[in-house]
Amino acid sequence: MGITSSGANPLLDLSDNLAGIVERVGQSVVAVHGRHRIPSSGVIWRHGVVVTAAHTIRREDGIEVTLPEGRTVTAVLAGRDTGTDLAALKLDGVDLDPVECGDARSLKPGHLVLAVARADGFGAGADFGVIGSTGGPWRTWRGGQVDAFVRLDGGLHPGFSGAALADVRGQVMGICTSALARGAGMLIPGMTVERVTGELLANGRVSRGYLGVGTQQVTLLDAWIKEMNLPSSRGLLINSLAPGGPAEQAGVLIGDVLIELDGRPCSDMDDVHMALASASIGQQLKIASIRGGQRHECSVTVSERPQRNSCR
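^ thats the sequence. predicted structure below, dont judge the formating
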């Protein structure tokens, strides 16, 4: 026996609602051809501006965007930020409505969401799932500041990096990426997208402080802690130096154990990132380290972090 009234079938109502969200949000989702083979997705974030996942853009020129209507146009790379995995593209002569944004901080584990992509040539595609976990502001392994931690409950399908993530009201919470966590899709919240996009459009990049050091956390000897009256039992062993970088120029050596930066204890990379976030390019920071069992101090001039460098 068939059901003729959708009101008597809540599953049908839910299904129709989700399909409507995909159709509506999909009008502001494009396919981005910035790498070989499978395109990624992108979102019309501002009039004439597409935002996508930076790791999917493998070339500077020759980038194309396929619009919801099926037309393919040339896009100009305005800038990219590997720290937050965001790239901004400019479209000329394209007037599509930007997505309607919501606040990603309202998401909770278990909330139903839809990733809306356009990457296979057959129109808008969707992936239905739930939010896996959430948290406060966090810093990515590449040094970018993200305004809210939102992990999806699984990985992303090919082409879904750069897709819009919508809640069940149809508001876009941000864009998806597979590059910020191993084995799981992550959300780049709308407020982060907006902030970074503004910087990319204005400057072509996001400037971050840089010391040029690679580190690993180590446990300090009890004798050092007692002799130097250290507040923490942890420090950061310098295990690599960027050639010609600020730290190398300041006389920092591989094997030094960093214990203070800018007069504050430094026991993990969050402490380093915090000091760099508050420092301006060209500012000098005082470094205290342990070298040969003795306290050693020097000053390092903060420079702008190269866009493609794994050192801090």
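The two ends are 66 Å apart (CA to CA).
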